[in-house]
UniProtKB/TrEMBL annotation:
One of its GO terms (biological process) is rRNA processing. Keywords: Nucleus, Repeat, rRNA processing, WD repeat. This is Guanine nucleotide-binding protein subunit beta-like protein. The keyword Cytoplasm does not apply. InterPro entries: Utp18 (IPR045161), WD40/YVTN_repeat-like_dom_sf (IPR015943), WD40_repeat_dom_sf (IPR036322), WD40_rpt (IPR001680). SMART domains: WD40 (SM00320). GO terms for cellular component: Pwp2p-containing subcomplex of 90S preribosome; small-subunit processome. Residues 13-46 are annotated as: Disordered. Belongs to the WD repeat UTP18 family. It is found in: Nucleus, Nucleolus.
Amino acid sequence: IFFRFVKKEKMTDECGHEGRPKRKRVSAWNDEDGEDDRQPSVVSSVPEWSHLTVKKKKMVMKMTDSDSSDEEEEIEVEVDVEDAAQEEVDGLDAVFRTTAKLLNTKDGRLAPHRVDFKMWNNANYESRSSVVINSTKFHPNPATPLLLVASSDQHVKLFKLGLRKNTLEHSLHLKEMQPKKCVWHPDGSKIYVSSGLSPSYIIDTETWKSKLMRTFVDRGAVSKKDKLPTFNISPDGKQLVWMKDNGQAVIISSQTWMCTSKIKAGDKIHDVQFDPENLHTMYMCGGGKVFTWDLRSTAVPIGSFRDEGAVDCTRVAISRSHVAVGSNSGIVNVYSKPKDGVFSDRNPKPLKMYSNLVTEISDLKFNYDGQMLGFSSRFKESAVRLAHMETGTVFQNFPRPAVQGARPTVETFDISPDSSMMAMAMWSGVVKLLTFRHYHKTNVYSMGGRDVAATKKA
């Protein structure tokens, strides 16, 4: 509002002395529309200027029902106002419901482009590691919210996940080794820990006591000088496979600790995974090739194929219908898995190639239903992606941008058996914990978690 000054009037105090003249200010003009905006008229608690539909209905009623009484007209107007308000509420509900349709589908399929996830408190908040975390694994039973964390300071810790508050349940110090990889027994009764060298540890989860697995070393399966870069356990928990540094695999019975058979792959093997659909089929990768073996006859592989464009395969992941292979160049190729799991074509064409990362793939996993594929590299910051398998695209909002000065290098990650949670072990010694709304069976979004869209802290 603009003001103009008028003639000054002299002011005097009680003693008759002239004081400082006081200027009177008057507005240059009066804005009638502005006054109406400041003091809106209200009809049934609904402002006239905010609901044009209500105003139009009132005008129609006056024109059509001019012969009716005032009382009848007022009743009709009140009904129309309530109907209009209800229509607007229904309209807002429809707008908000459209967001849910984008995030979740009725047939259980995961929506592409953007994944709805929420960050929670760090899983190891009560006992954060000051060194690099080498392995993190969820309990195989989705109803048991436990997360295993193994770090280079010779500690293996077990955390109970409460999302808003994660508590340390157990902590074990291994005097003779630095744990590199941990694997749960499928029934959750044991934890197998390896340092990449023999011997390894086995932890009883009931008593939380550990013992060295010297049996298969003493019986000649491997020597104390052998390097065991990786190992895995079969889905039924009856057999363990240890890979030697020279490309030889040793299959051990989990009950007797006897060596049941040996496999010679010929190349250095970087990873071994079992087929979730076939307990006797396992896949090994190394040297640009992927080998398929049947544990019942380990003389020769039952199949093999070359990963397109790969010099050295570093990781392999198996789902019900796909086989994903990661290489040292950061490329991830996804192939269609045959029904029997054996590739007849030695040079198959990948269904999809992900070239989002440029450094060696260090971790590669499918979720339980095969709709998501996660892959990461520990050789570059923020080198972690989640892919939507149906469309062959990566989610645009994952991962979120890191704050300046942070070192968000993902050493390893794991997805829970029901895909409701994901844990990322960071270079800084923390374990980031997040949940996926599409898979979470409870309304964790009302439990006080931090919204990924609204939070900027890494």
